[in-house]
Write a structure and sequence with these properties.
The structure is a homodimer.
Chain A lengths: L6 H20 L6 H8 L3 H7 L3 H25 L4 H22 L1 H13 L1 H24 L8 H11 L6 H7 L5 H14 L17
Helix pairs in contact in A: 1-4, 4-5, 4-7, 5-6, 5-7, 5-10, 7-8
Pfam families (chains A, B): TetR_C_27 (PF17935), TetR_N (PF00440)
Protein name (chains A, B): TetR family transcriptional regulator
InterPro entries (chains A, B): Cro/C1-type_HTH, Homeodomain-like_sf, HTH-type_TetR-like_transc_reg, HTH_TetR, TetR_C_27
Chain lengths: 211, 211
């Protein structure tokens, strides 16, 4: 579901907003198609003209939740920033959006997180999209000589692991009070200046001798 | 509770082993003092000679679960490895212990994770102890010129964030299938070669211009 283009899409958008208000007030488990129809002042039969079932509704809610995050990722991708700045903004702007929502209403935030864990199928395509965009930034960085000796997929996995608290939603929620844009900037600088496919001594082939 | 030194401690150790077997078989919520007494073939009154309540039992179970992890951390700390190797082994050996337990019985592993989240007070002292040891390694690294411009506490927070999937138990559990010693070694090399208090361009003071 993109931004509304016709009456059905406008109706879907309005229903998603009502459904989000309902779960923010009463938790994820309070959401039923019948309650949504009632709250929207329409019959259940009419509601099913907009969403053929709860899965379709949840998919639209995921799209609605992720839409501003996708927008900032796409704005960063389209910018002419150097790769290091791009990667920082890619994670930082998304992180700030989510942190601000968490600060405004931590209980509502937790409700969306639980909903996302329960209906991960509706979330997975956004995780894949973010990985796709991150691969583009990694490719630009590699063209400038960064991440020498790593394949794009290896670099993708390593970067996602090194910034996990600013990226993986459940990890972010748990660590939120210890996260900051300053720390993220230090980590992205470490990614660019320290990450490569060359073994520089962290792991010894012979294992731990002295312990 | 350290390793058993007298009859009471030997009895506590045996009861902890029985309690662990019970939650591995039946889940965290199956554990009651009454069931434990019954399974151990003793009266409830006798059980309370060993543990004055469920909190004391859970504390002993946490000590039992963390004991091998503390042992590998202490062995690494006592070694004469250089700081880079030490930090890798510090995270890697603990990670391998937990991953092997997860591989052997993922359901039991999940039960311990849920128990740890529910009774976090019993877990916190081990988190603090791990941070204390990690600070020692960071101090040794700083003495060799690494992490220039960072305070020990800043470096501690940044390192914990950069290795979160190998360190924070719930993050580790979610990411387990994508984690490896090879990736951890690349991350520790990036920590040592890339992490400092010097801004190298990830974050622009003027913000994002082009997006």
């Amino acid at each position: 579901m993109a931004r509304p283009r016709n009456d059905i899409e406008a109706g879907q958008e309005r229903l998603v907003e009502i459904a989000c208000a309902m779960i923010e007030e009463r938790g994820a488990h309070a959401l039923t198609m019948q309650d949504l129809a009632s709250r929207a002042g329409m019959s259940s039969a009419n509601l099913y003209r907009y969403f053929e079932g709860k899965d379709a509704l949840l998919e639209a809610m995921a799209e609605y939740w992720f839409r501003p995050k996708v927008a900032v990722m796409e704005a960063v991708l389209a910018s002419d920033l150097p790769p290091r700045r791009k990667m920082y903004e890619f994670f930082a702007r998304r992180f700030v959006l989510i942190r601000d929502a968490w600060r405004a209403d931590p209980v509502a935030h937790q409700t969306y997180m639980e909903l996302g864990e329960e209906y991960f199928e509706q979330v997975r395509s956004y995780v894949d999209l973010a990985d796709h965009y991150l691969c583009e930034i990694i490719g630009e960085a590699m063209a400038e000589g960064f991440f020498a000796g790593l394949e794009v997929d290896e670099a993708l996995s390593l970067v996602n692991q090194m910034v996990a608290p600013y990226c993986a939603l459940s990890t972010m929620t748990m660590a939120m009070e210890r996260l900051s844009e300053d720390k993220l900037a230090r980590i992205i600088d470490a990614v660019f200046d320290g990450l490569s496919g060359v073994d520089r001594g962290a792991r010894s082939v012979s294992g731990l001798r002295a312990a």
